[in-house]
């Protein structure tokens, strides 16, 4: 009997505490922060629903512009923030819930803003923590919460939270915000690369300036540049007509040849030739983001994905037991973009002979391979003109052209720089180095102790010679 009495007493005390809590909870004033949201929704917080969508850190500017466009279409709305300790750790709906129960001292506060990059030399102010009261596409009242990354508190990525009285209203608003976000994407038409960024608010994406090169600045054999342009830019210019005739748009271009011959220079020309196209440059450590780059290219098309030194990740599996771990990631990225996407993969390599055969055995991976060879005499003369020897008569340049057989564009660029240094050391007043200055610089670069320099600039490696000396009949 004593046990039953104790159990009954415990249940009675439990009911008493629960009823006391309810009385206190009902008598406690609703925090201003909560009442502002629930007053707009015309319902208690426990009857509201929240739909959340998360995005990568570097999409905060685009998300902000999408929310701004959404609010503007509905007459605008004033942002307000949240004050209180620990707000950085929690989602907005959790903050409202705990504040309503009196567990945390949250209140209306200032909106948090952040400065993020939206171009090589351009930034913008965006909301990194704030709420706005507006309506859903169906007219129902909603609250929109926008949160930026808070990596120091373990909160990566940015997100939008839509609070409404029904899931349908919240989902419709979230979908419209995302549509407007893509329409106003801050990354569209930019040149981007991945890695650690010096720009605030962009932990993965770096904006690069768009080069400005004319066709006269790209010294290639006759017809090569035109072929490349037709494949990359020409297909895009006729995209609608090609699709109407059942042709695919996605294409792959491989530029191969010795180092220093102008492959990257040609890519830079293409970047400037197509100003409205989004370009994603993948090189070095950025290659681990190839999947993200392909997804961005699909979303921001027309787009170009540049994979520099592709042989580092796409070497033929015959040359190793396992191949590169990024090889299949690259294949998946190239194959995952639909044939109807106006996306070009531009690959460069100094070692075409070691490339994985599977790169070229499927249309849409590589359907045009162009060699960028060492410059012939005509191109060597053009390179001398391009890099600063323009006013000199051709007769003065002919000896230089003859002595630089096999040298690359990088070699000529360095040659002209050294010629200018020679002229400066001699106190020459002219802006253009003379033929004598060029000859002196060339002598310097052709000396034996600069063999490695020439090799680094793309000059042919000298053939190694071996001697075999014998000592006695057995050669020992």
UniProtKB/TrEMBL annotation:
Q: Which SUPFAM superfamilies match?
A: P-loop containing nucleoside triphosphate hydrolases
Q: What is this protein called?
A: AAA family ATPase
Task: Name the family.
Answer: Belongs to the AAA ATPase family.
Where are the annotated coiled coils located? none
Keywords in alphabetical order, please: ATP-binding, Nucleotide-binding
From which organism does this entry originate?
Answer: Nonomuraea zeae
- Highest taxon of the source? Bacteria
| Keyword Nucleotide-binding annotated | yes
Occurrences of domain AAA+ ATPase (ranges):
249-376
Q: Name one GO molecular function term.
A: ATP binding
């Amino acid at each position: 009997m004593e046990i039953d009495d104790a159990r009954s007493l415990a249940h009675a005390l439990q009911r008493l505490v629960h009823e006391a809590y309810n009385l206190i909870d009902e008598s406690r004033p609703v925090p201003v922060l909560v009442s502002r949201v629930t007053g707009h929704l015309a319902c208690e917080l426990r009857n509201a629903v929240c739909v959340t969508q998360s995005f990568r850190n570097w999409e905060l500017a685009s998300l902000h512009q999408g929310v701004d466009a959404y609010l503007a279409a509905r007459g605008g709305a004033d942002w307000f923030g949240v004050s209180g300790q620990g707000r950085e750790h929690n989602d907005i709906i959790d903050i409202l819930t705990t504040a309503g129960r009196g567990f945390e001292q949250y209140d209306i506060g200032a909106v948090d803003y952040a400065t993020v990059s939206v171009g090589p030399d351009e930034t913008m102010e965006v909301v990194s923590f704030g709420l706005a009261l507006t309506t859903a596409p169906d007219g129902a009242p909603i609250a929109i919460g926008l949160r930026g990354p808070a990596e120091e508190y373990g909160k990566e990525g940015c997100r939008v939270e839509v609070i409404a009285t029904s899931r349908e209203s919240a989902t419709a608003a979230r979908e419209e915000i995302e549509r407007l976000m893509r329409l106003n994407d801050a990354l569209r038409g930019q040149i981007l690369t991945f890695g650690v960024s010096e720009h605030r608010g962009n932990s993965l994406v770096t904006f690069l300036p768009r080069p400005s090169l004319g066709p006269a600045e790209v010294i290639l054999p006759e017809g090569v540049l035109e072929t490349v342009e037709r494949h990359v830019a020409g297909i895009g210019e006729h995209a609608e007509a090609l699709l109407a005739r059942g042709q695919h748009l996605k294409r792959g271009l491989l530029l191969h040849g010795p180092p220093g011959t102008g492959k990257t220079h040609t890519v830079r020309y293409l970047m400037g030739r197509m100003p409205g196209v989004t370009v994603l440059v993948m090189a070095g450590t950025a290659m681990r983001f190839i999947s993200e780059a392909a997804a961005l290219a699909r979303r921001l098309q027309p787009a170009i994905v540049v994979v520099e030194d592709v042989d580092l990740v796409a070497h033929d599996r015959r040359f190793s037991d396992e191949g590169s771990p990024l090889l299949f990631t690259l294949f998946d990225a190239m194959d995952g973009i639909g044939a109807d996407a106006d996306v070009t993969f531009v690959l460069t390599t100094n070692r075409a002979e070691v490339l994985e055969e599977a790169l070229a055995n499927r249309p849409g991976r590589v359907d045009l391979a162009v060699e960028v060879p060492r410059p012939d005499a005509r191109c060597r003369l053009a390179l001398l003109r391009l890099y600063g020897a323009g006013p000199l008569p051709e007769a003065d340049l002919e000896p230089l052209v003859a002595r630089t057989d096999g040298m690359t564009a990088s070699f000529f660029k360095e040659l002209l720089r050294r010629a200018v240094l020679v002229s400066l050391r001699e106190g020459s007043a002219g802006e253009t180095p003379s033929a004598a200055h060029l000859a002196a610089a060339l002598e310097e670069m052709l000396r034996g102790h600069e063999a490695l320099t020439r090799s680094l600039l793309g000059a042919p490696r000298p053939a190694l010679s071996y001697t075999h000396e014998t000592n006695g009949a057995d050669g020992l």
